[in-house]
Amino acid sequence: MEIEDLLSNPANVLARLKASNKKQALQDMARRAAELSGLQERAIFDVLLERERLGTTGVGNGIAIPHGKLPEAKKMFGLFGRLETPIDFDAIDEQPVDLIFLLLAPEGAGADHLKALALVSRLLRDRTICEKLRGTDQADAIYALLTDGAHSHAA
User: Fold this and answer.
1) Number of folded domains that form the chain
2) Which one is catalytic: 67, 113, 151, 153?
3) Best label site of 35, 67, 79, 106, fewest CB within 10 Å?
């Protein structure tokens, strides 16, 4: 599995996401995910909120990986958002979040879902990549950084 399997093209990147809080960020990302995936916006938002109630997906260092499984999903789907202004995301390190990788999976995608989470987590643990992601507000450039084969690790 590669990042390109999750982010099919630069349309899957929100380079200048404007949100003042976690709920608004998840709503805006659910809206775009619905447009691109054909899934219901409300179903996406609800599954993300439900997951956040179990525990924050703010993993630290300004990064969040909200995720969930939907019965209607036919394949893994990813959406990346770069916030213009960092927001409180109840992250485990209590630091504001500005990089969000949303991940949706089919209901029965147990192992693939975990592989995708691991892939995204490894990618965003790379401080150099995160610095570059924070340094541009161009969707094409962000997409290229995320999908560059030189740092892509098969899961």
Assistant:
1) 1
2) 67
3) 35
pTM, two decimals, is: 0.93
Active site residue 113: no
Q: How many CA atoms lie less than 13 Å away from 24 in the CB half-sphere?
A: 10
Of 47, 44, 16, the closest CA to residue 31 belongs to: 44
Contact 17, 25 (CB under 8 A): yes
Write out residues in the chain with pLDDT < 50, as ranges: 150, 152-155
Structural contact between residues 92 and 59, judged by C-beta atoms closer than 8 angstroms = yes
Phi, psi for residue 131 in degrees, rounded to 5: -60, -45
Q: How are beta strands 58-60 and 97-106 bridged, if at all?
A: unpaired
Instruction: Print the domain residue range for 131.
Output: 3-147
